[in-house]
Amino acid sequence: MSIEAAGTGKQLTATSGVLSSAVSDSFEVTAGAAAALAFAQQPTAVAAGTAFDPAVSVSVRDAYGNLVSSATDSVALQLTAGTGSLLGTTTVAASGGIATFTA
């Protein structure tokens, strides 16, 4: 048995036919190990040579899509379609599970 969604204030309820139900104490489910990246802020249209506004950000997620807020992994961006070069800082360490590319 497991729970895939991280969060606080979780409770379990036990039931069985005509018996009185029982409710567990509240508990917390924390995010699992880092397993994937997801864009928290997608890139938007921008003029050539200007910084993205808002800044592009990438979050570190566990296998169930929960933010791994303790993650400090380095995240790199690459231009993988189209022409040109990606300029500025292209590798950023995540803070609070989010890597934000500001320059």
- If helices are DSSP runs of H or I spanning 4 or more residues, what is the number of helices? 0
The secondary-structure element order is: EEEEEEEEE
Query: What spatial order of strands do you see in the largest sheet?
Result: 5-6-9
Q: What oligomerization state is this entry in?
A: single chain
Structurally, the number of domains stands at 1
Biggest β-sheet: count, sense, barrel?
Answer: 3 strands, antiparallel
Structural class: mainly beta
Extract low-pLDDT stretches. Answer: none
Structure description:
- Helices cover 0% and strands 32% of the residues.
- With 103 residues, it is mainly beta.
- It has one domain.
- The strands form 4 sheets. A 3-stranded antiparallel sheet has the order 5-6-9, with no helix packed on it. It has a two-stranded antiparallel sheet with strand order 1-4.
- The chain is elongated and about 70 Å long.
Write the layout of secondary structure elements.
Elements: E1 7-10, E2 13-14, E3 22-23, E4 27-29, E5 36-41, E6 56-61, E7 74-76, E8 91-93, E9 98-101
Antiparallel strand pairs: 1-4, 2-3, 5-6, 6-9, 7-8
Structure described in brief:
0% of the residues lie in helices and 32% in strands.
Features:
103 residues; mainly beta; three-stranded antiparallel beta sheet; two-stranded antiparallel sheet; 0% helix
